[in-house]
Amino acid sequence: MSIKLAVISDIHYYSHELGxxxxxxxxxxxxxxxxxxxxxxxxxxxxxxISESDCDAVLVCGDxxxxxxxxxxxxxxxxxxxxxxxxPVYLITATHDWCSNGHPRRFVGDETLNDVESPGPADLTDMxxxxxxxxxxSEHVHxxxxxSYCVKLKKGYRLLCLNDDKNGKGRAGYTDELKExxxxxxxxxxxxxxxxxxxxxxxxxxxxxxxxxSTQCCGDRDELCELLAESGVNYVFVGxxxxxxxxKKICGGKxxxxxxxxxxxxxxxxxxxxxxxxxxxxxxxxxxxxxYNGKRYTxxxxxxxxxxxxxxxxxxxxxDKEKFRQDVCELGIHIKSIPVPDKLFTFIGKKLYExxxxxxxxxxxxxxxxxxxxxxxxxxxxxxxxxVKRIYLSVFDGSIVEYPKGTHEYNVIMAISKLPRKLQKxxxxxxxxxxxxxxxxxxxxxxxxxxxxEYNAVSCVLKED
Length: 465
Fold this sequence. Notes:
Helix content: 25-40%
Structural class: alpha/beta
Shape: globular
Strand content: 15-25%
Number of strands: 17
Largest sheet: 7 strands, mixed
Number of domains: 3
Radius of gyration: 23 Å
CATH architecture of the largest domain: 4-Layer Sandwich
């Protein structure tokens, strides 16, 4: 008994009807980690790759449109219909698809306008019914009209397609009614002797660390992990974070793997293939190339697009404090002012943007002895911003490039992660609180996971025993 699945998530499809020119769009595009203009071309490339594969079915883990714009839904559905004729598609929608913040956007000149038609959760249920729900053997309707459903993928395999939008304790999660339905589906699968997988949008495990992923998780994640594992689920596919990461949790003696699928339209821009047989799964990333407006885009182009966001932030930090503040606000971190003198702020920015690793660490190393001199000498002449770019890519791609323990890069990164601990030498009581100690530990764990992930997500084998 075996099955092969193609899994994608966070397509964030963007219709050109919403604007492709003007300063407002250009600013939005420059601060976006994934592609907007090119999203249609990437979807086409993914459809071609999947259609030509030997997979049995396709899973889509939500946020299929950029921000819930009706025109984006209409265009994407036409593309998915092409794929659905070749391979059965099982899809869930998520908060971006009904624009939960109430502000779908279009761009005209220097204006960002919110007068865009956007469907609600119940509308999405009807619009996407042909992509899985019409093949359901059981379904659970939520109060807002969204639906969770169960399907038979093939003989011996079932799939729970779970809608977790704002159902749990003020955050993403499951209602009590959904929990009971999941238990029932688990019992049915056990009676039939079927293997059961699950997809949902939000995370159940902090893939990198609480510091990075906690707010992207369901509010009652530990309880939900126990529920899925007890219901016979060993693999849950999620999206949302745009970070490709595989995590494992032991729940009551049972193994639950979380496969956090990256954004299709961002780095590493690929399709995840999952092949299950005999109580183990093989996972492989296939990166895409695509064409848009006469240009061929390679993985190197995608990497450049993804790092453009972080490079722009640091560049603007070196030039103008207000420009930097506007960038940060566009990323959803709303701050009214930065309480640092302008000249000092831009001075620090220039060090980060133009300096080498040795330049940036010179003062901290002098005061606190942050990095071993030998390790720093090996990497000190590297441009600091290039270092930042490489690490930033590792956050999103499951560490295609790893920094194994013992390498100079690993030693430098981990030494920097321990810099906050050095501050505890100062006689400041607040630096020794349990909360601060937890944050410092999470900083170190974050850097460790970025250098060396729990699993090499590019290609690995997951075992259930």
